[in-house]
Specification:
With 684 residues, this protein is α/β, with parallel strands linked by helices. It has 13 helices and 28 strands.
């Protein structure tokens, strides 16, 4: 597999001497089928008839006049007028002498009510750093060095690969006094940290241009621009390139669900509701006071399709996590009766958004077969991660917010009461294979008064740490890909603060360092044992061996790979009471090696264990032909891997682990059992 390219596509027009847009471009753009509009609209450095300058093009169908204003013409409207391309609604023109780095906006005089406004370029690939709002003429020139990364992914199905994601907000991951935080300055520390922890991917909260830092990037004004707070587009390309060269995949949060109401942005763009609906019952989001895209308008669809493709093409991202999908699917999302408009059939489904999401996933799958799309979708909408041909939305995977809610509710309960709530653990079995799930312990769970993950755990200090270790062990034992937010690897006491940084100093304390070492080891055994990931999305990959022991709050699961010898048994004791001589039924003879125990002293545990391995006896137990007798430490998850017989082929080898180094050291929806639909997020 080769990396993304900027190669010409035959169904698009070649650039003429004066225009980048031909009839085919205009037709596809208006129809909502142009997914490379960023090559035609916006600003592009060019040489026309021997003269260097910039081509500008913007969609403003209800404008009476559009001109480019900038530092090259003293920001005077009407001096550099663009030409209207008829019924397409696009205005374009070539300005000689304009150079890279020039700041500019479009001055738009509407045909209605004498409205005039200066707008940032919706297709600009660079913007002036906030609080400035101008667009900047720029290029995409960069020499990539990650061809080996893409070649290594050829022919591999991400659904059958280990996928453990380290989610982070770049602006609050690490801050050093006297040093500007940039895409380049963070590269060495981030790579060293992710490699040391053993994650396969990083996922960045949105890195697209956004005016308000407190939105965490979820209120986007520049859908094609890397956030200028941290550098230029090439600086972000450098970071992603370096991550790829280190063997780390990159996912980007992307927000096609809503956009902010800043005047320089998309709202009321040409004196009309162009990108958004005019009726606030369709066009305004009640939770976030933002505008909702009009997915029924072809030009808006082309804009969003092109944005999604741009991040995979120009920036080599490995996939997109699509934010707030539920708010797109339901016309009545967070609305009371009378506050929304039904669809043409009288229903609550946003049929235009559904069509857009299917088109999006189909287009990306065709152009980037290696790419991953992940839906943050919190309801019971069916087949989110099933192909469009089967009536699904076409996402590769979906966040399992039901698992997250139920599991955290369970872990917050005092162990003495957990026997009454075992259903919070087992409810997932009802829907576990309806979708391809990612198990998220994300940023959303450690903000807005929710406290840190450590703070959610019950009991005294020792029990809270033991519960957190148990939670992480249980997550890695559960079918589904893994996601952990920054700071959770060092068991932060405080909830996330986007104006601060991760509490890196905690890693100097043994109990916190123990959590980090556990995360490293969980990722290591996860990669080493195909049983823990290969059949994540198939019922054949999972079996409850002991789920009825409600009184003792014990759960035992068996994970299976395609090879019959790939078997990992995980026994979880959710009480602080050690269980000696605990019998577990197993399906096979052979030695079961204790490959990880969250109670090991290295992690801050009490050190109870099984002396390295156990062997079964021919004593049937719980519908299994053999059984083992083990010690279950207090508040723990114990992983036993079936030892391969000598005649078997050797296990597959993943990349080696490395010693954990903190940034200071580095040198280099389903409905849940508890809630069927989450409320709106205050963060956006």
């Amino acid at each position: 597999m080769t990396p993304p390219t900027e190669s010409h596509r035959p169904d698009l027009d070649d650039a003429s001497s004066t225009s980048l847009l031909g009839p085919v471009d205009l037709h596809l753009f208006n129809e909502g089928r142009h997914d490379r509009a960023y090559e035609k609209l916006g600003s592009h450095l060019r040489r026309v008839e021997g003269i260097e300058g910039v081509s500008f093009a913007v969609w403003a169908p209800n404008a009476a006049e559009v001109s480019v204003i900038g530092d090259f013409n003293d920001w005077r409207p009407g001096v550099a007028k663009l030409t209207h391309r008829g019924s397409s609604g696009i205005w374009e023109g070539f300005l000689p002498g304009v150079q890279k780095g020039a700041r500019y906006k479009y001055h738009i005089r509407s045909r209605y009510d004498g409205y005039e406004v200066a707008k940032a370029d919706p297709y600009a690939i660079h913007h002036a750093p906030a609080p400035a709002t101008e667009s900047v003429v720029w290029d995409r020139d960069y020499v990539w060095g990650d061809a080996g990364w893409f070649e290594g992914r050829a022919g591999r199905d991400p659904r059958e690969e280990p996928l453990s994601i380290y989610e982070l907000h770049l602006g609050s991951w690490r801050k050093r006094p006297g040093e500007a935080l940039t895409y380049r300055s963070i590269a060495d520390d981030l790579i060293a940290h992710v490699l040391a922890l053993g994650f396969t991917h990083v996922e960045f909260l949105p890195l697209m241009e956004h005016p308000f830092h407190g939105s965490w990037g979820y209120q986007v004004t520049g859908y094609f621009a890397a956030c200028s707070r941290y550098g230029t587009p090439q600086d972000l390309m450098y970071l992603i390139d370096r991550l790829h060269q280190a063997g780390i995949g990159v996912l980007l949060d992307w927000v096609p669900s809503h956009f902010p109401t800043d005047e320089h942005g998309l709202i009321y763009f040409d004196g009309t509701h162009l990108y958004e609906h005019a009726d606030p019952r369709q066009g305004m989001h009640p939770d976030w006071n933002t505008s909702i895209f009009n997915y029924g308008r072809g030009e808006v669809v082309s804009f969003l399709l092109s944005s999604a493709r741009f991040w995979l093409d120009a920036f080599h991202a490995d996939g997109l996590r699509v934010d707030a999908v539920a708010s797109m699917l339901y016309l009545d999302y967070s609305r009371e009766a009378g506050e929304w408009i039904p669809n043409q059939s009288g229903g609550r489904e946003n049929l235009e958004a559904v069509a857009f999401l299917r088109q999006l996933n189909a287009a990306l799958a065709e152009s980037f077969p290696h790419a991953i799309t992940v839906a943050e979708e919190s309801t019971t909408w069916p087949m989110v991660s099933r192909p469009e041909s089967q009536g699904g939305l076409g996402f590769t995977m979906k966040w399992d917010l039901g698992w997250m809610n139920d599991t955290l509710r369970y872990m917050q309960k005092d162990p003495i009461h957990r026997s009454f709530h075992q259903g919070l653990l087992t409810f997932r079995s009802i829907y576990a294979y309806n979708e391809n799930f990612v198990l998220p312990l994300s940023h959303d769970e450690v903000v807005h008064g929710k406290g840190s993950l450590l703070g959610k755990m019950s009991g005294d200090e020792w029990r809270r740490f033991a519960n957190l270790r148990t939670l992480y062990g249980y997550m890695y034992a559960t079918p589904g890909k893994k996601l952990l937010f920054m700071g959770c690897e060092v068991a932060s006491y405080a909830e996330w603060n986007h104006d601060a940084q991760v509490d890196w100093h905690l890693d100097e304390q043994p109990e916190h360092a123990g959590i980090a070492k556990l995360v490293h080891d969980l990722n290591r055994i996860y990669r080493e044992h195909p049983a823990l990931y290969e059949l994540d999305f198939e019922p054949a990959g999972f079996e409850w061996l002991d789920v009825d022991n409600v009184q003792q709050s014990v759960a035992v699961v068996l994970r299976k790979g395609r090879d019959p010898q790939d078997r990992v048994l995980v026994a979880v004791n959710f009480t602080p009471v050690p269980r000696a001589n605990y019998r577990i039924g197993v399906p096979a003879e052979g030695v079961w090696n204790e490959v990880l125990n969250t109670d090991w002293k290295d992690y801050g545990g009490s050190g109870h264990g099984n002396l390295g391995s156990v062997e079964p006896s021919p004593v049937p137990w719980r519908n299994q032909p053999y059984s083992i007798v083990v010690t279950l430490p207090p508040l723990s998850a114990v992983f036993f891997a079936l030892e391969r017989r000598p005649s078997a082929s050797p296990p597959r080898v993943e990349r080696s682990s490395s010693k954990l180094r903190t940034p200071q050291d580095a040198t280099g929806g389903p409905a849940s059992a508890s809630a069927s639909k989450r409320s709106g997020k205050a963060r956006k």
